[in-house]
Amino acid sequence: MTHFLDILPTPTADLRQMIGQARTMKDARRDRPKGMCDDETPLDGRMVALIFEKPSTRTRVSFDVGARQMGAQTMVLSGTDMQLGHGETIADTARVLSRYVDLIMIRTFEEQTLLEMAENATVPVINGLTNRTHPCQIMADIMTFEEHRGPIKGRKVVWSGDGNNVFASFAQAAAQFEFDLVFTGPRPLDPEPEILEAARAAGGNIEIVRDPMAAVEGADLVVTDTWVSMHDPVSARERRHNQLRGYQVNAELMGRAKPDALFMHCLPAHRDDEATSEVMDGPHSVIFDEAENRLHAQKAVMRWCLGV
Ligand code: CP
Ligand code: NVA
């Protein structure tokens, strides 16, 4: 079974193939109405289930639209409306869904839920974000960087802020796509040591630099994300804001990066918290290309999972 659970366990050549295919599919449908199918519809006759146990705008819409453009039918399921939210096991849910659908995408809390779904499903499962990682986002991010600046290999990527799930997938990508990654943030919000260890063991060059100004020096790409993720307790908001204020991506910080550095944010953003609107709407920012590329990258991920 070809699941897309994370960046690190996916073969490097396959990740590369998916990014290339995403680019080709994007080019092939330039200026085409969004609701029109692609010329090629490799998912004809397939049924795709999209399960959300957390809110989503981009993941939900881009998977749904992408699957339909490739000829599939889709159903969006809210975790709380399913028996899953009322005590049915993940394993039983996975076995049952596999009798109805050809592909499952799930956004959930614990990584264990995703893993149990994958273990028990007899159809491919895609990770649409867990508390721990967000691999689909990073496929779009790599695609976006390379579209604007060419190969990411050997480039310097700086993450400023919380060492969260999106950072974790960047750490895995640093190993797979061979870019240098610098994390800058307050010690209490450091990335999980196991994530760093695994990415480093796979060859990722990942450094932690506390001073954001020093960290960003010479960066080709500056990335940040919300200071309070969906799985973080609301009560942590004020503390996190105090801890992270010095890591805001603003014009001064971007000014330390290379003059042609890009700025990315997976969105949704809290404008003027983790990044200023000046940066988000400024000349370095590619945040809406990044959001668009979720669509193209995930279409390639779905094709890879189904082998079509
Ligand atoms: N970036 C991202 O995954 O956005 P959504 O939460 O809107 O899906
Ligand atoms: N780190 C964020 C990403 C949202 C797409 C979260 O998990 O809420």
From TrEMBL:
<protein>
    <recommendedName>
        <fullName>Ornithine carbamoyltransferase</fullName>
        <ecNumber>2.1.3.3</ecNumber>
    </recommendedName>
</protein>
<keyword id="KW-0963">Cytoplasm</keyword>
<dbReference type="InterPro" id="IPR024904">
    <property type="entry name" value="OTCase_ArgI"/>
</dbReference>
<dbReference type="GO" id="GO:0042450">
    <property type="term" value="P:L-arginine biosynthetic process via ornithine"/>
</dbReference>
<feature type="domain" description="Aspartate/ornithine carbamoyltransferase Asp/Orn-binding">
    <location>
        <begin position="153"/>
        <end position="304"/>
    </location>
</feature>
<comment type="function">
    <text>Reversibly catalyzes the transfer of the carbamoyl group from carbamoyl phosphate (CP) to the N(epsilon) atom of ornithine (ORN) to produce L-citrulline.</text>
</comment>
<feature type="binding site">
    <location>
        <position position="165"/>
    </location>
    <ligand>
        <name>L-ornithine</name>
    </ligand>
</feature>
<feature type="domain" description="Aspartate/ornithine carbamoyltransferase carbamoyl-P binding">
    <location>
        <begin position="3"/>
        <end position="147"/>
    </location>
</feature>
<dbReference type="InterPro" id="IPR006131">
    <property type="entry name" value="Asp_carbamoyltransf_Asp/Orn-bd"/>
</dbReference>
<dbReference type="GO" id="GO:0016597">
    <property type="term" value="F:amino acid binding"/>
</dbReference>
<dbReference type="GO" id="GO:0004585">
    <property type="term" value="F:ornithine carbamoyltransferase activity"/>
</dbReference>
<keyword id="KW-0808">Transferase</keyword>
<dbReference type="InterPro" id="IPR002292">
    <property type="entry name" value="Orn/put_carbamltrans"/>
</dbReference>
<dbReference type="GO" id="GO:0005737">
    <property type="term" value="C:cytoplasm"/>
</dbReference>
<feature type="binding site">
    <location>
        <position position="294"/>
    </location>
    <ligand>
        <name>carbamoyl phosphate</name>
    </ligand>
</feature>
<comment type="pathway">
    <text>Amino-acid biosynthesis; L-arginine biosynthesis; L-arginine from L-ornithine and carbamoyl phosphate: step 1/3.</text>
</comment>
<dbReference type="Pfam" id="PF02729">
    <property type="entry name" value="OTCace_N"/>
</dbReference>
<feature type="binding site">
    <location>
        <begin position="229"/>
        <end position="230"/>
    </location>
    <ligand>
        <name>L-ornithine</name>
    </ligand>
</feature>
<comment type="similarity">
    <text>Belongs to the aspartate/ornithine carbamoyltransferase superfamily. OTCase family.</text>
</comment>
<dbReference type="GO" id="GO:0019240">
    <property type="term" value="P:citrulline biosynthetic process"/>
</dbReference>
<dbReference type="Pfam" id="PF00185">
    <property type="entry name" value="OTCace"/>
</dbReference>
<dbReference type="InterPro" id="IPR036901">
    <property type="entry name" value="Asp/Orn_carbamoylTrfase_sf"/>
</dbReference>
<feature type="binding site">
    <location>
        <begin position="56"/>
        <end position="59"/>
    </location>
    <ligand>
        <name>carbamoyl phosphate</name>
    </ligand>
</feature>
<feature type="binding site">
    <location>
        <position position="107"/>
    </location>
    <ligand>
        <name>carbamoyl phosphate</name>
    </ligand>
</feature>
<feature type="binding site">
    <location>
        <begin position="134"/>
        <end position="137"/>
    </location>
    <ligand>
        <name>carbamoyl phosphate</name>
    </ligand>
</feature>
<feature type="binding site">
    <location>
        <position position="225"/>
    </location>
    <ligand>
        <name>L-ornithine</name>
    </ligand>
</feature>
<dbReference type="InterPro" id="IPR006130">
    <property type="entry name" value="Asp/Orn_carbamoylTrfase"/>
</dbReference>
<dbReference type="InterPro" id="IPR006132">
    <property type="entry name" value="Asp/Orn_carbamoyltranf_P-bd"/>
</dbReference>
<feature type="binding site">
    <location>
        <position position="83"/>
    </location>
    <ligand>
        <name>carbamoyl phosphate</name>
    </ligand>
</feature>
<feature type="binding site">
    <location>
        <begin position="266"/>
        <end position="267"/>
    </location>
    <ligand>
        <name>carbamoyl phosphate</name>
    </ligand>
</feature>
